[in-house]
Amino acid sequence: MSDAIHYPNYTVVAVDEPSPGVRRVTLNRPDKRNALNHPLRGQLLQALREGDADPEVRVQIVRGAGPSFSAGYDLAGGNEGHEMPYYTPGGDGSWPRHVTEGWMSIWDLAKPVIAQVHGYCLAGGSELATCCDLVYVAEDAQMGYPAVRFGVPDMHFHAWFLGMRKAMEMMITGDSISGLEAVEKGWANAAFDVDELDERVIEIAAKIARVPTDVVQLNKRIVHRGMEIMGLRTAIRSGTELCALGTHQQSMHEFTSAVREEGLTAALSQRDGGFGDYRTAEAQPREASS
Fold first, then answer.
1. Cα 267 to the chain's mean position, in Å?
2. pTM of the model
């Protein structure tokens, strides 16, 4: 991503080193439940690239500040006045190609990246976590893609990481799964009590940091190349074209019209009202769930 914007200062991510060889990047828009706007996506990927190039860093962690990992893409005007963080060729389907290219760039980094997931991990947030090499979750975390109730996801990872039946259920209902179920189905590595999550993830990262980093990099690539030979990357790229087709469907036009006429919160509440989840409960994410 040599054409990416360079951010001289981090304003929506925080970076620290909780253990030798371990770099941690925290999504830092807690008041927006870490809704993924252009600056947040750009600064996250820049921080991860910098860590990947730093010889002192052996493994990286991505987590979210506040009550959630990320409630999804920012649909409430958070991108206004901000450029896309990196170039993607235009035309129909440019947006799903853009975000998928960004998240898959984490897959392509040399050093392992761990997603530390708590609270809501929805839509774009679930795409981000999926493209990390390891995923550790709070037991009561919620991973889902509610946007299937009005459109087609940008990144179709579900069949690969959850199996066909659960993938189909999630894709045609928009239901979420808990952290415990995410482990059972294979999307996440392990689940911990939310109060222990930080400590346990740092322990795992420290264990990885003890393995020679040149060997770790090769072994990471072995797993990814195996998945790619089986077709994962081609399938995800094909899905971006189906996402583009989804933007032309009647249901999508009705939803975007409702957003313009009634506001985002009302439109999303109407979307989820019959299901009794997400925005129909008090104090749910206000900005995202795209």
1. 23
2. 0.92
Please, what is the angle between helix 232-246 and helix 213-229, to 10°? 60
Q: Is 23 helix (H, G, I), strand (E, B) or coil?
A: strand
DSSP for residue 20: T
Q: Which residues pair with 116 in a beta bridge?
A: 136
How many Å apart are CA 217 and CA 182, to the nearest integer?
A: 26
Taking only the tens place, the pLDDT of each residue in 37-58 is 999 999 999 999 999 999 999 9
DSSP tag of 274: T
d(CA 98, CA 256): 20
Indicate the CATH number for domain 13-280. Answer: 3.90.226.10
Nearest to 157 by CA among 207, 211, 99: 99
Integer Cα distance of 150 and 52 in angstroms: 37
* Domain map (residue ranges) of the chain: 13-280
